[in-house]
Specification:
Chain lengths: ~425, ~1050
């Protein structure tokens, strides 16, 4: 039964095979890249608050480190499976490669439900995870980061345990730390700004002045707010944002023809990007159904909320005026919609690269930790701009040259870079 | 003399007379103090006492220079030098207990101008009575003390007891209190007869009758006649001679001791035995007791217990369960304070009501247990005044509005219609003088602290009647001058009184068969626990706690670990279920297991608002926390225990030095309170102590200020509505049992489920691509909107709303499931491994606030039934309802229970105490054996709601001018069509429309009128108001063709919309 069901790892492998065909990779390369290089599966005994001991199962999957140390998150999930972790590790390898970071891909996890664990137990679990795997990870070999149900606090416990074992300070051992404890400035802005860096480049390529454009955003969370901020700085005008309304349990779109006032909207927005409906109406924003964001006669659509939002149904309502779709969210476009967009001639900036700002900033955190010197915010964002811009240019040039979709082009670049590194090391 | 001079002299005279009056009062008072001072030393002999007392009396009288006093006692007299009885003499008898024991005289030697009583003032008459009274008490006390001394000496000297000792005691008694002596003989004779001693019986027969009934030794106040006393002595000799034959000396001694004690507290018991004695008599008796009894150990336990029980019954309730518990914890002294803070109409016969009783008892229990366990910490009860329950009747009588008592027999529409006027009338009525005086005293006692006026209904203490929230509780800022505050207080009480006749309580009582119960309403006036911060008054935090946790969010939490719902500010927001906000939850038995594991969830589910009293505007107010914190900063009481600081994706404890509460991003988490204070430990101890002592799980309301916890309310947890446990029938035919469960069960009963949405765990696991998995969640979201609200259940594998690996649970958000009645998670064994379930944690708090039940199923466990065949193989309606998701037919099963089972419904019964839950198929009209009638009557009520809605929908169809508005058809669906509409249900109409824009606007207009009218009607019937009762969905030909949106309801396979006849041309 299980083998016939949806398996994220098989899906990731299929995706790889598809690109490998395009690149015409040889068998050894395929065999190497299709699977993880190393996998660790270990027991973590934890003393519980009531004095009993519970054994948890921990994982670390190291997919490929031909381009640099593995890096990737640690997930706490009660029904974690090795295949999920494998798929995510592979995806991490590609994600680092496409923006040309000197890093490989890894992923780890623990089968546990943080809802069932006290803070003390979670701390002992984090320390236990590090103790079991400390020989095989480190700032120069494998760098963990926060992921599902883990946060900065978990990272600090793990760092502390690692440094205690090693007897030295290694702030670059782990990322996702708070500012002041080895974290990097600019991380909040990174993803949203990154989206607009690629958007700016796309506009340049299409020969459109940013000042002449209008945009509609789905979502008004962290990513969208910073993206709008930078987009407005570049002279663009946002006419619509949509957001989830926590009280009404439904999404709404807020539109204003002469452009929204970001600061004004932020003033009536909760931490989670929920705009106060009553106040917005009072301020003269037009209230529309949640789906209305996609129907706007704008130049740019930025889905930056959930996956699968641009699908076979909704894609039909996209107006002919739309020229660019920048994927701020993960996987917002379904494969059918992708085809439709291609037909419409919409330029898609794939999530792979559009929202890579977070990963890049995580890399910057390692770099700063390793040299033990921390940059100002502007320096971080400036370097982010460079990275994203060059990554975008590479993808878009390849797409043009080889007549690929931008999405495929991004994959092709990522996989060929990793394959090349393996070859350069004469592994294959 | 000029006018001015005249005025002046009048004023001077007035001032002079006022001054002399005041001087007199001062003299009287100091005299009384002087007497008390003399009496204070119990070791002085009576003679000495009397000598001293006569000396301190004259200075208390107006003309002290010519005043003399004399006390005569036992043929001795004590007097001031030169005393003689003149024609200007006052006299007061001194009674020790019930026997006349002496006399107090006060006389003037010369004539003086006449006053109230000869030359004496009326205050002086009162004074001499008071002094005589005090002397009487003192004499009685001395006498009994003497006897006790004799009696208690004995056993220590000789284990067998010594005949001489009890004889000595009897002799002493005979000399000092012949009445008592007589009563002791009588008791001894009765005692002997009881033991079947024939001689005693014949003795009783011989002396019986006359001896006692003539009142010779009875309770008359006449001195005994010589001959009778001789008879008494010989009777005593005889009785005790017989006694020595049958009883040991020790027994005799013990009996005498016991009877003396009983005799001493007898007056209290006697006044309590009389059920019709007014409260004032009891209050007097209690006060007398307080003066008289200095050492309780002198009294027999049985007498004390009896008095306590009587007092409990008198002040609180006749309910035996309550009395049984109370008698172990309550002592007579506990009532002293109570009677000092009571407001009652003259001749009141009322009680204090359920709320007062619960709080009083809980407080005593906690105080008594405080010595045993340190964890209880300091717990206080806010200062409280009580208005007796018949205050309401007196109020009604005084204002001659007795006809309000008929209110409850009117129809609920009438009641609702009249209620606003009734409130207005009540607020303009006057309080009887007696009550007004009492309330004024209460305000003097409280000062200008904010108050809460709470109802304390006599119905509240009846088991099974959860009256919480049915009657009003009103906050008063209590600011301004006394007159205004008194006005406001009376206004509030009048409003609470009016709420007795409000539609909600009346309807509620009608449903429960309590309508004919004559409603009396006690009132509690309670100091609001809190502190002033800026212009606001609020406690640091407040909330409710339950000793049974009915909403466990982890398998590690046991039911008995309890639950705390806590909010900053006033506790109102924790008591009620909120739709727009969340209280912070904690389980005192598992203090470190939080509901929300990630900081995002901790922030999302943190309270955003709080309730405070605005002292400037004199009102109760709900404020946004962020705005109040900007205003108050660290002036907010105990802020460091309440909040965390959100920064860098972390929640940090506030730092005394660096945290700026006005500027920083502040989130309410109560981390400091839970982590750094013993609060949860204390709460657990409180809940456990109360549960143990009261023999039932309890829920309490609390508030805290300055680290001191106040108890505000305590009642059995069974009184809370939504935790009623269901009775599970013993023998369920297997074909009717859909599933059973025996792990992590909470209480609940979901009676009428018409549809089941079942996601097959096997088939879901077999799905091969990600997008199919995502679309299962989307299909569920659609079904959630289309199936009848709260009439369907969702059953699915693993974790609903899983955020990680989609394979492990269906990806839905709360809005995709928010109309379900129950969320069921199925954990099927995979090999040797049974996956953990989520306990709905992803939207746990949303479920709690919306009262959606959660139930985990473990079908592979031993002894568990799971009718997979029914779920998998019943006709599946998915394709018909959502054709676009037809390909998921194997995975998602939508079952119309009524259709499949010939009209049966699914009923889920959950019983936490038995850790048992079942889902059974049964006919809707024959309720399963269920003990609480109230549930059935609620069923009847539902019938009413849908019937009139249905009629109205038909009327709309019949009056709708189809041609004019371009309407092709009108359909009814949802709860009204399904006969399940409740008081808050709307009427779902589907209108097939083919007109133009103009017609559409007009149609909408026309329907809006209907909608508002029906809403008003519904409000009158039920008290539930919305923005209009109709929920109209307009569909076009295109919709029908595409079967999009609600168009699929037309001719649908399940829950199809019902076509209503249109107006005939």
């Amino acid at each position: 039964m299980p083998h016939s069901s949806f398996n994220p790892y098989e899906t990731a492998q299929k995706q790889f095979d598809n690109i490998a065909d395009k690149l015409d990779l040889d068998a050894p390369t395929r065999n190497l890249l299709r699977d993880s290089m190393r996998e660790f599966n270990f027991a973590i005994p934890v003393k519980m608050d009531d004095g009993s001991t519970k054994i948890f199962r921990g994982f670390r999957v190291q997919h490929n480190d031909a381009r640099g140390p593995f890096n990737g998150g640690i997930r706490f999930h009660p029904q974690e499976t090795i295949d999920t972790v494998r798929a995510q590790a592979m995806w991490m390898t590609w994600k680092c490669a496409v923006v040309d970071l000197p890093l490989g891909g890894g992923k780890g996890g623990v089968i546990c439900d943080p809802h069932d664990l006290t803070t003390g137990e979670q701390e002992r679990l984090c320390r236990g995870w590090v103790r079991q795997i400390s020989k095989n990870i480190g700032p120069l070999s494998d760098i963990p980061a926060p992921d599902v149900m883990t946060n900065a606090q978990h990272m600090l416990w793990m760092l502390d345990e690692y440094e205690t074992i090693q007897g030295n300070k290694y702030p670059g051992f782990i990322t996702g730390k708070p500012v002041g404890m080895g974290g990097s400035l600019g991380r909040k802005e990174a993803t949203g700004y990154g989206v607009v860096f690629t958007l700016r480049e796309a506009l340049k390529e299409l020969g459109i002045r940013c000042e002449d454009t209008t945009a509609s955003f789905q979502g008004f969370g962290n990513v969208a707010q910073y993206a709008i901020d930078l987009y407005h700085q570049l002279g663009g005008k946002t006419v619509c944002v949509s957001c989830w309304d926590q009280n009404d349990q439904v999404a709404y779109s807020y539109t204003r023809k002469d452009g929204i006032d970001l600061a004004e909207l932020q003033g009536i927005t909760s931490r989670f990007g929920c705009i106060d409906r009553a106040k917005a109406t009072e301020l003269g924003y037009q209230l529309q159904p949640g789906d209305a964001w996609i129907e706007q006669p704008v130049d740019i659509l930025v889905p930056s909320a959930l996956e699968n939002q641009v699908n076979a149904d909704t894609v039909q309502s996209i107006k002919p005026s739309v020229k660019i779709l920048a994927e701020g969210a993960n996987g917002p476009t379904s494969p059918q919609a992708d085809k439709f967009l291609k037909k419409m001639g919409v330029f898609v900036i794939p999530d792979f690269i559009a929202n890579a700002g977070g990963v890049i900033c995580s890399y910057f955190e390692q770099v700063q930790c390793n040299i033990n010197y921390f940059w100002e915010r502007d320096e971080v964002l400036g370097k982010l701009d460079q990275k994203m811009t060059s990554a975008f240019i590479a993808v878009s040039e390849l797409a043009k040259k080889k007549k690929l979709s931008t999405r495929d082009a991004a994959y092709v670049i990522a996989i060929s870079r990793v394959a090349q590194a393996c070859k350069d090391r004469s592994w294959i | 003399m000029t006018e001015h001079d005249n005025d002046h002299s009048r004023t001077t005279r007035a001032v002079g007379s006022l001054l002399s009056t005041l001087q007199e009062r001062a003299k009287e008072l100091s005299c009384l103090y002087a007497v008390e001072e003399v009496l204070f030393d119990p070791n002085r002999s009576l003679g000495d006492i009397f000598k001293m007392v006569v000396e301190v009396i004259p200075p208390g009288w107006q003309y002290s220079d010519i005043c003399q006093a004399q006390i005569s006692h036992n043929e001795e007299t004590y007097q001031t030098t030169g005393f003689k009885e003149t024609q200007w003499t006052q006299c007061a008898d001194i009674y020790a207990g019930e026997s006349l024991s002496g006399r107090l005289l006060v006389s003037y030697n010369e004539d003086r101008p006449p006053a109230d009583d000869g030359p004496f003032l009326k205050e002086e008459s009162k004074l001499i009575e008071t002094i005589a009274d005090r002397l009487g008490h003192f004499i009685l006390h001395q006498q009994t003390r003497e006897m006790f001394r004799v009696l208690s000496r004995t056993p220590q000297r000789n284990n067998g007891g010594d005949r001489g000792e009890w004889r000595l005691a009897l002799d002493l008694m005979w000399q000092t209190d012949p009445n008592l002596f007589g009563r002791i003989i009588r008791k001894m004779m009765n005692h002997l007869c009881w033991r079947g001693v024939d001689e005693a019986e014949s003795l009783l027969a011989r002396y019986g009758g006359g001896m006692w009934t003539d009142g010779v030794i009875g309770e008359t106040n006449q001195p005994l006649k010589k001959t009778d006393t001789e008879g008494l002595v010989s009777l005593g000799e005889e009785a005790f001679r017989i006694a020595t034959l049958y009883l040991s000396d020790l027994e005799i001694l013990a009996s005498i001791k016991k009877w003396i004690g009983e005799d001493k507290s007898g007056f209290l018991v006697r006044s309590l035995v009389n059920a019709h004695a007014p409260l004032s008599t009891i209050t007097d008796a209690l006060m007398k007791y307080q003066h008289l009894v200095h050492d309780k150990s002198e009294l027999p336990r049985s007498a004390l217990a009896s008095a306590c029980v009587s007092l409990t019954r008198r002040f609180f309730t006749d309910q035996l369960e309550f009395i049984n518990i109370a008698k172990n914890h309550v002592e007579i002294e506990d009532f002293f304070e109570l009677v000092g803070r009571m407001v009652s109409p003259a001749g009141s016969n009322g009680k204090l009501g359920g709320k007062s009783a619960g709080l009083f008892l809980a407080n005593k229990i906690l105080q008594n247990n405080n010595h045993h366990t340190g964890d209880l910490g300091e717990i206080r009860v806010p200062k409280t005044w009580y208005v007796a329950s018949d205050g309401l009747l007196e109020f009604v009588r005084f204002n001659a509005i007795e006809d309000v008592h008929e209110q409850k027999y009117k129809t609920v529409e009438e009641v609702r219609q009249e209620y606003p006027h009734l409130v207005k009338v009540f607020k303009n009525l006057h309080f009887p003088q007696e009550m007004k005086k009492g309330l004024s005293m209460a305000l003097d006692d409280f000062g200008d602290v904010p108050l809460i006026v709470r109802s304390s209904s006599l119905l509240e203490d009846r088991l099974g009647s959860a009256f919480s929230g049915k009657y009003k509780s009103l906050f008063l800022a209590n600011q301004g001058d006394k007159e205004a505050r008194l006005e406001a207080l009376m206004d509030a009480i009048a409003e609470v009184y009016a709420s007795t006749f409000g539609p909600d309580p009346i309807e509620y009582r009608a449903e429960r068969g309590l309508l004919d119960f004559f409603e009396e309403m006690g009132i509690m006036i309670q100091e609001v626990v809190g502190t002033r911060a800026g212009n606001y008054f609020l406690p640091s935090f407040a909330g409710v706690s339950f000793s049974n946790n009915e909403f466990r969010w982890s398998s590690r939490i046991r039911r008995e670990d309890g639950l705390v719902r806590i909010v900053p500010g006033l506790g109102t927001r924790a008591v009620d279920r909120l739709t727009d906000d969340y209280p912070v939850l904690a389980a005192p038995g598992q203090p470190r297991l939080r509901v929300n594991a990630s900081f995002e969830d901790m922030v999302r589910y943190s309270p955003k608002y709080l309730d405070v009293i605005d002292l400037v505007n004199n009102k109760f107010q709900t404020m946004e926390f962020s705005s109040i914190i900007r205003d108050l900063g660290n002036e907010f009481p105990q802020i460091e225990q309440i909040v965390s600081v959100y920064s860098d994706d972390r929640l940090k404890a506030p730092n005394a030095l660096t945290t700026d509460y006005r500027e920083d991003d502040i989130v309410i988490t109560f981390e400091g309170l839970f982590r750094n204070t013993p609060f949860l430990k204390q709460m657990r101890a409180i809940l456990q102590t109360l549960e143990e002592s009261m023999g039932t799980p309890v829920d309490i309301e609390f508030a805290s200020v300055g680290n001191v916890l106040y108890l505000l309310q305590c009642r059995p947890q069974s009184h809370s509505m939504d935790v009623e446990s269901a009775q599970i029938p013993k023998h369920i035919p297997p074909e009717n049992l859909l599933f059973s469960a025996n792990k992590y069960i909470s209480n609940g009963r979901i009676p009428d489920i018409t549809h089941v949405v079942y996601v097959s765990p096997d088939e879901y696991g077999k799905l091969e691509d990600h997008s199919s998995l995502v679309s299962v969640g989307m299909a569920i979201g659609q079904l959630n909107k289309l199936l009848p609200k709260r009439q369907f259940v969702l059953m699915g594998p693993g974790r609903w709303g899983s955020r990680g690996d989609i394979k492990l649970g269906i990806r839905v958000t709360y809005s995709d499931i928010n109309n379900t009645a129950v969320l069921i998670e199925i954990a099927r064994k995979k090999g040797a491994y049974v996956p953990d379930l989520s306990f709905g944690t992803h939207f746990f708090q949303d479920l709690v606030e919306a009262s959606i039940r959660y139930l985990p199923l473990y079908p592979d466990d031993k002894g568990i039934s799971f009718n997979e065949d029914f779920l998998s193989n019943s006709p599946n309606l998915l394709k018909n309802i959502l054709p676009q998701f037809g390909d998921l037919e194997k995975v998602i099963k939508v079952i119309d229970i009524q259709k499949v089972t010939d009209g049966k419904i699914l009923r889920i019964l959950m019983n936490a105490a038995r850790e048992e839950a079942v889902g059974i198929l049964c006919p809707p009209e024959s309720p399963v054996a269920y003990e609480d009638e109230s549930m059935e009557s609620r069923g009847l009520e539902i019938e009413d709601h849908w019937k009139w809605r249905h009629r109205m929908a038909e009327r709309i169809g019949a009056t709708l001018d189809a041609q004019r508005y371009g309407v092709d058809g009108i359909y009814l669906f949802g709860s009204t069509k399904n006969a399940t509409a409740g008081p808050a249900s709307d009427v779902d109409l589907l209108i097939h429309f083919s007109g133009n824009e103009q017609q559409r606007r007009e149609l909408e207009h026309w329907l809006e009128g209907w909608s508002n009218c029906l809403d008003e009607l519904n409000y009158l019937k039920t008290g539930s108001r919305s923005d209009g009762l109709l929920d109209v969905h307009i569909i076009t030909d295109e919709d029908i063709e595409k079967r999009s949106s609600f168009a699929i309801k037309i001719g649908a396979v399940t829950d199809a919309a019902l076509q209503l006849p249109l107006k005939k041309e």
